[in-house]
Amino acid sequence: MPLRHCLLALAVVAIWGSNFVVIKYALHTLPPLLLAVLRFAFALLPACFLLRRPQVSWRNLAGYGVLIGVGQFGLLYLAMRSQISPGLASLVVQTQVFFTLLLAVRLRKEKVLAAQWLGLGLAAGGIGVIAAHVDGSTTVLGVAMVLAAAFCWACANLLTQRAGRIDMLAYVVWSSAFAVPPLLLLALLIDGPAHIATSLAAADASIWAAVLWQSLGNTLFGYGAWSWLLARHPAGRIVPMALLVPVFGMGSASLLLGEPLPAWKLVAAALVLAGLAINLFGPRLLPQRLRPAPD
Fold this sequence. Notes:
By secondary structure, this protein is an all-alpha fold. The chain has helices at residues 3-27, 32-44, 58-82, 86-92, 96-108, 114-131, 140-163, 168-190, 192-202, 205-230, 235-238, 245-257, 263-285. Helix content is 76%, strand content 0%.
C-alpha cells in the first residue's frame, strides 16, 4: 500500500479518535441531544443534494439512521456529558465489534472460533476493570450507556451488511434524514425550547467549529476516505488501522484535557485492544482446515 494511502488511513483514525475530545468541548455549551441533532443535520445538508440515494430500502435507511443517531450517538453524547471520560468512552464503544459478533451468531447462525471467544473474554475483562474503578469522571451508568451505544452500533452494522456493497458515504448521509427528527423531538422534550435557544445563543465560533467537525471531519471526510481506501485495498490491510482509534482517543484526552492514565486504565485498554486484535487476526492464524468456510 502506498505511503500516502497509509497516511490517509492514519489521518482518518486520528480524527475519529481525537473527536472524543471535541465532543467533550462542545458539550460544555450544547446539550447532548442538540449536539447530535446538529451533527446529523449538517451531515445531511447539503450533501444529500450532491450524492444519490443508495439503492437500499427506505426501511433499511430508517433503521440505520435511528440506531446510529439516537442509539449510538444520542446515548454516547448523554454519557459523555458527565458520566464517562472521553478517553474511556473511545475505548468502551469499540465493544461494538463483539456485539456484532454475538448478534451474527444469534441471528445469522455464524460460527464463533475459539480465538474469538478468547478475544471476547479479554475485552470483557477490560470492561470489568473499568467498572471496578468508577470515580467522579466515570460511573457505572456511564459505562452502561456507552455499552448500550456500542450495541446499537452493532445492530446498525447488521443493517449495513444487509444493504450489500453500496456507497457507504451516501448511505450515512441519507440515513441522517431519519436520525434528525427523533433526536430533535427528544431534545425538545428533555431540554425544552428555551434551553435549546439559550444554548444556541451561547455557542461561539469555536463551538460551531466543533459541531462542523462532527459532520464534515468525522462523517463526510472520515467515511468518504475510509470507503475510498477499502475500494482500493483488501479490507485486511485497512480495517486493522481502526484499532488505533482508542489509542488516539485516550492519548488526545490525556494530552488536551489532562485526563489521567493510571495503571488500571492502561491495563483495561490493553485487555480491550488485545481482545479486538485477537478477534481480528486470530482466525487468520489458524490452520486452513480449521478456518470458517467462506460465504
